[in-house]
Amino acid sequence: MFRTPISIPSTIRRWWGYYRSILGGYHEYAILILLPALYFRFSYPIFTHNSATLSLYLATVFFFLPIKTAAALWGLVACGRDNRNHYGKSRYSTGLLATPLKRKSPWRVPAWILSGIFVIWTYAYGTASPFPEASELVSDPVFLEHQKSNASYFIAASFWNNEPVLDHWTREMTSLIEVLGPQNVYLSLTENDSEDNTASKLLHYARKLTKMQVQHSLNITRELRGYPSNMPWENIPHRMAYMANLRNGALQPLYENNTPFRTLVLMNDVVFHHTDVLKLIIASNGKTMACSVDMDGATLYDQWVLRDSCGRATTGFWPFFMDSKDRAVVRRGGVLDVGTCWNGIVALDADPFLNTTLRREGSWNGGMRLDTSF
After folding, report:
1. Closest C-alpha to 335, from 306, 304, 293, 364
2. Lowest mean pLDDT: which of 60-69, 71-80, 131-140, 178-187?
3. Which long-range contacts (CB under 8 A, 24 or more apart) does 194-202 make?
4. Model confidence pLDDT, tens digit, residues 320-369
5. What is the mean pLDDT of residues 299-306?
6. d(CA 51, CA 360)
7. Do strands 345-349 and 289-291 pair parallel, antiparallel, or not at all (unpaired)?
8. Pairing relation of β-strands 335-340 and 307-308?
9. What is the pTM for the complete model shown?
10. First CA to last CA distance, the chain
11. Rounded to 5 degrees, what are φ and ψ at 217?
12. Burial (CB count within 10 angstroms: exposed 0-12, middle 13-18, buried 19+), residue 176
């Protein structure tokens, strides 16, 4: 019985020919590495969205190696019973995943076996959640003391053109509120001059907060940012004054509320996990403030504001600090004392922000900490 050949449009065949002629034998690398890398590079809020090298690494580990290893194992199984069709081609090879065992090389099989072991290890450990369970953190003595004293938390966040990250942000914020207790949280949200659907998403989230019976406020303003919208500042002091004005607006409900808040959390459009905030609340105990580590790709963001306990500047690359003891703390993902910090999320003692009549009994010890378990 003769089979009718499948007709491929000439345009597709022509472009496929161009593609093969340009890339030659490397076309599979373009498909299995470059295309996934582009996805990682431009997908938001995947943490590789501004790191090309990290995107290439993940594409290699999670796409190229698994697929090529599977093809190698298939070739190993099939090579013993392989035969050729009337064109002289193997029945078990394809244009993209050609059987990699055509040539007998002593290193080829061990190399692919090691590759398979590496892929299994990566999927077993590399895709595991790096975040601790919230139940582990709330059993910390600091949180147990907070629960005993019925502590309350004021969370303030500002947004501008953050539509891509808001679905993730609101989901994690909801998880955080559920852990802290809806009755113990006041969430202050501000948005200004967004050119996307940030305001509408925040309005939708505010309705959800109402259903959750969470105290909250949402302030949406226009014509505050200036022009051009992507860089409206005249200089660095102007930018700092603008950012301070936004945060002061987000803090305004703090002074209109009679609740003696224990902890104040300031944040913005960072991609975070709700346990990140829980760890900062623990780290801020007995200190003025605790900061997270905010990464911009593979480097430290807001590097200019971070200083070690001796006032020395940091580098942008891990483990950041000059002192060997500080670097050791960073390597094990611990918490260390710093001179100044303001990186992504900060948890502060609320006392300095409140009226003296609302202050809790006790002293304000001062000092800052940096949580490096990012």
Report:
1. 293
2. 71-80
3. 194/159, 194/160, 194/161, 194/162, 194/163, 195/161, 195/229, 196/161, 196/162, 196/163, 197/163, 198/159, 198/160, 198/161, 198/162, 198/163, 198/166, 201/163, 201/166, 201/167, 201/170, 202/159, 202/166
4. 898 999 999 988 888 999 998 887 899 998 888 886 554 444 444 567 87
5. 83
6. 45
7. antiparallel
8. antiparallel
9. 0.70
10. 63
11. -145, 150
12. buried
> How do residues 125-145 score in pLDDT, each as one tens digit?
655 556 778 888 888 999 999
**Residue 37, class by beta-carbon neighbours within 10 Å (0-12 exposed, 13-18 middle, 19+ buried)?**
buried
Q: Return d(Cα 367, Cα 351) in angstroms, integer.
A: 14
C-alpha span between 283 and 278 (Å, rounded): 9
The one-letter amino acid code at 266 reads L
d(CA 218, CA 156): 10
Structure tokens at 254: 């703090």
Q: How many residues appear in the chain?
A: 374
**Domains of the chain, start order:** 10-126 (no CATH), 135-371 (3.90.550)
Strand, helix or coil for residue 104: coil
Q: Which two tokens stand for residue 75?
A: 């070739």
d(CA 17, CA 11): 10
91/258 Cα distance (integer angstroms): 77
Q: For residue 247, which of 152, 342, 339, 170 has the smallest C-alpha distance?
A: 342
Residues 6 or more apart whose CB falls under 8 angstroms from that of 327 comprise 319, 320, 321
- The three-point CA angle 25-27-28 to 5° equals 100
Q: Which of 77, 69, 63 is nearest to 115 (CA)?
A: 69
Phi, psi of 187 (to 5 degrees): -110, 120
CA–CA distances in Å: residue 346 to residues 95, 191, 264, 293, 337: 53, 19, 8, 10, 14
Task: Give the closest residue to 340 by CA, choosing from 319, 317, 365, 310.
Answer: 310
Radius of gyration of the chain (CA): 27
